[in-house]
Write a structure and sequence with these properties.
- Helices cover about 40% and strands about 10% of the residues.
- The chain has about 325 residues and is α/β, with parallel strands linked by helices.
- The longest helix is centred in the first third of the chain and has 24 residues.
- It is globular and about 45 Å long.
């Protein structure tokens, strides 16, 4: 079974005049439910506020949680931060963190949301409020892990790169369309900017030639994967030329790379855009199934000594206990 993290708060009502597809996460959930026993479901608690503030400016965190984000920041984010959107923003990083903890036990796990790689220290940007990848990576690093963030979204992971730039226990990798958003790029540990229209073979060659050496040089013990499906040639906001099969080949290659090195892999949904929300959701679900199907063909540590078992319910209880939006424990 593929472990998938989902929370009901991932599906939030669309704010007024928003162009973001707020029903995408619900459609992803429904399509994965249709896979039946192939999927094992886990529910995260909200990320403790102190863990969010370890990455984001406390004043900005308060603005979000209290749903009073200034208009200029909302314009940069791309939508209004309502109470429901704020509640979602707090629980999504908890999902990415839980997926990482599950991956340490199972080998691979997916968050059915997240990948909000544009959010910066004191503001959101590009449909991203809190940077779940950076928050989870920082927390996991504080727990003693060397974390590699692999970002295959069509847009550069500028927020993650900027937020993790001073850490020596977190490395960031971004392969993206060089001329796409953001105009001003940050500096990842390794950036691979591709020309418009790059197709399957050139993309996969560039990925293999650049990511494998970084893995060897950095030596992570845990990988967070931003599995954006917007490199597809038909994506509304993409500028690359991958086919559907190319996206699947990308994800299978990623899964094999880290499975063969016995490195836990946790994925977050990432970007995917189009007029047909169901079509976008199908791309995301195909990504999760490709990653999980490829990685879980063999155990994480064949022949290794048994590791202490992580109990997901303990994490849910801990996160729920420590994080609130309005003085009451949020429902998991």
């Amino acid at each position: 079974m593929i472990p998938v993290v989902h929370h009901p708060h991932y599906v939030a009502p669309a704010p007024p005049r928003s162009t973001y597809q707020w029903n995408k996460n619900g459609l992803v959930r429904d399509l994965l439910r249709a896979e039946g026993e192939a999927i094992e479901w886990f529910t995260p608690g909200p990320m403790p506020r102190a863990w969010i503030e370890a990455v984001h400016d406390p004043d900005y965190v308060a603005e979000v949680i209290e749903a009073r984000v200034p208009r200029e920041k909302e314009r940069r984010i791309g939508f209004q931060v309502t109470r429901e959107v704020a509640r979602r923003a707090v629980v999504v990083p908890g999902g990415t963190y839980l997926a990482a903890r599950l991956a340490m036990e199972r080998g691979y796990a997916a968050n059915s949301a997240g990948g909000s790689h544009h959010a910066l220290a004191n503001t959101g940007a590009g449909f991203c409020i809190f940077n779940d990848l950076a928050i989870a990576a920082a927390r996991l690093a504080e727990e003693g892990h060397r974390v590699l963030v692999v970002d295959c979204d069509v847009h550069q992971g500028d927020g993650t790169a900027a937020l993790m730039a001073e850490r020596h226990d977190v490395a960031t990798y971004s392969i993206h369309a060089e001329k796409n958003f953001p105009v001003r790029k940050a500096r990842s540990t390794l950036d691979v900017g591709l020309p418009d229209g790059t197709g399957d073979e050139a993309y996969l060659d560039a990925l293999a030639e650049t990511l494998s050496p970084l893995v060897e040089a950095f030596g992570p013990d845990l990988v967070l994967y931003q599995a954006g499906v917007d490199p597809w040639k038909g994506d509304r906001l993409g500028r690359l030329g991958l086919t559907r099969e190319g996206l699947i080949r990308r994800d299978r290659w990623i899964a094999r790379l880290f499975r063969d090195r016995r490195l836990p892999l946790a994925s977050a949904l990432g970007g995917g855009y189009g007029e047909d929300a169901m079509e976008v959701a199908e791309r995301h679900v195909a990504s999760i199934l490709a990653l999980g199907g490829e990685y879980l063909q063999s155990p994480l540590r064949p022949g290794a000594e048994p590791q202490p078992s992580f109990q997901p319910k303990e994490l849910v209880a801990t996160a729920t206990h420590h994080s609130t939006l309005d003085g009451r424990n949020a429902e998991a």
